[in-house]
User: Which sequence fits this backbone?
């Protein structure tokens, strides 16, 4: 059992590093990299390089190899004691379920992780583009729509069954995300209008209205969740067949994602005339010549690596529920820090809509994962179960133990693997609910 001080440190570390990821990324977007001495702010060029920001995220994931390498070196140095295996540790018969589940992901099979890495690359790049146009709190809240896409894709590709309360929770999440995006665009437009009215002699710039920019950013973030959900579905298919340590899987995905970006750089550079997002040589020059951009990138990579470590540790030593609650508090902390830094403003009564939308996102997510008590009419109807066959109790116990062992091996949130909430059936009042497939 971990000490009473160890658990709060893990939770605080996850909250701090998780919040810093989005805040430092937004800070990096706000840095001036060209024409910074021009007295007209309209001529300043900000750092808008989502591809480079995606690369620094993958470099942060590659740092997850460090604790794995340290553990391997420590095991090599430590003297190994010879022990006879216990009866329960003997090799199971060929073809059994336990043998199939214990198959390790090694050799050429490691390349299977390149598919979720490609989805992560696309989704993260699109989210970085959306962050350029949206406040950081809107960016974080809009990412809550991930549960909707994971749920839909799991029904089609993983043959999952969703209950009525879960479909209602998905609709609730989407309603909250829509309200958050709409209120955020109204707030940014309301804040920008007084600043524009103060400078009556400023020439027209022809830029898009702030409300349009925010809505475009929200669209990019929502579209990115499709790729992130696909990543989770592919990861679940891989994890269901092969066994791999979570930090090793994160490290491999970071390696494959970084290699993909490096290999794609010559191709992307040919389309620099289409968008500055693809002007990678210019982005490299901006980064190395601007210390704030360079060092913020280092901090982002470190925080992503530590966030993975703290998140997995919270799941292993506490519970997946605590990790889910901490992740929700991360969204709230990002909003509060943005207000304190002056990046966002409270505009009454528009900000009230943003709070309501955030509440709907949180409630819908908690309802989907059965973390809150739901109305009785949404609960699945209880069905009479047939009498158990001889040996069924032993088989059920074996399945439960296997599931517990698998969770302990992966130490990953079920929602991170696309499984969160699907098999959690809340008990009906006075009766036992049926367990889904």
Assistant:
């Amino acid at each position: 059992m971990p000490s009473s001080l160890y658990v709060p440190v893990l939770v605080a570390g996850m909250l701090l590093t998780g919040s810093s990821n989005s805040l430092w990324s937004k800070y990096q977007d706000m840095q001036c990299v060209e024409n910074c001495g021009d007295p007209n702010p309209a001529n300043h060029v900000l750092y808008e390089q989502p591809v480079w920001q995606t690369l620094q995220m993958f470099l942060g994931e590659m740092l997850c190899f460090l604790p794995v390498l340290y553990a391997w070196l420590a095991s090599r140095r430590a003297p190994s004691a010879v022990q006879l295996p216990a009866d329960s540790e003997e090799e199971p018969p060929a073809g059994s379920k336990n043998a199939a589940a214990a198959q390790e992901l090694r050799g050429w099979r490691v390349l299977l992780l390149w598919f979720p890495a490609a989805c992560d690359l696309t989704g993260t790049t699109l989210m970085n583009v959306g962050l350029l146009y949206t406040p950081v709190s809107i960016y974080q809240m809009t990412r809550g729509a991930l549960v909707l896409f994971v749920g839909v894709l799991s029904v089609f590709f993983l043959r999952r069954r969703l209950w009525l309360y879960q479909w209602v929770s998905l609709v609730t999440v989407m309603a909250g995300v829509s309200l958050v995006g709409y209120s955020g665009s109204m707030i940014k437009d309301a804040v920008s209008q007084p600043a524009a009215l103060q400078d009556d002699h400023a020439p027209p710039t022809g830029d898009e209205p702030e409300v349009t920019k925010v809505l475009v950013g929200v669209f990019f973030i929502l579209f990115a969740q499709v790729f992130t959900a696909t990543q989770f579905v592919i990861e679940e298919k891989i994890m269901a067949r092969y066994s791999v340590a979570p930090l090793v899987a994160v490290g491999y995905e970071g390696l494959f994602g970084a290699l993909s970006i490096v290999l794609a750089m010559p191709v992307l550079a040919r389309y620099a005339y289409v968008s500055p997002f693809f002007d990678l040589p210019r982005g490299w020059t901006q980064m190395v010549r601007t210390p704030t951009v360079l060092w913020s990138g280092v901090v982002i990579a470190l925080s992503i690596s530590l966030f993975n470590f703290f998140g997995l540790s919270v799941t292993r030593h506490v519970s997946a529920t605590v990790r889910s609650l901490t992740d929700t508090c991360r969204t709230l902390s990002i909003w509060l820090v943005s207000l304190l830094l002056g990046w966002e403003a409270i505009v009454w009564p528009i900000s009230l809509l943003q709070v309501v939308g955030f509440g709907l996102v949180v409630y819908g997510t908690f309802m989907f994962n059965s973390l809150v008590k739901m109305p009785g009419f949404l609960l699945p109807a209880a069905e009479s179960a047939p009498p158990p066959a001889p040996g069924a109790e032993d088989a059920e116990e074996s399945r439960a133990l296997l599931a517990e062992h698998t969770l302990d091996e992966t130490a990953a949130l079920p929602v991170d693997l696309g499984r969160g909430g699907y098999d959690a059936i809340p008990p009906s009042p006075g009766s036992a609910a049926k367990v889904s497939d």
About this structure: The CA atoms of residues 187 and 348 lie 9 Å apart.
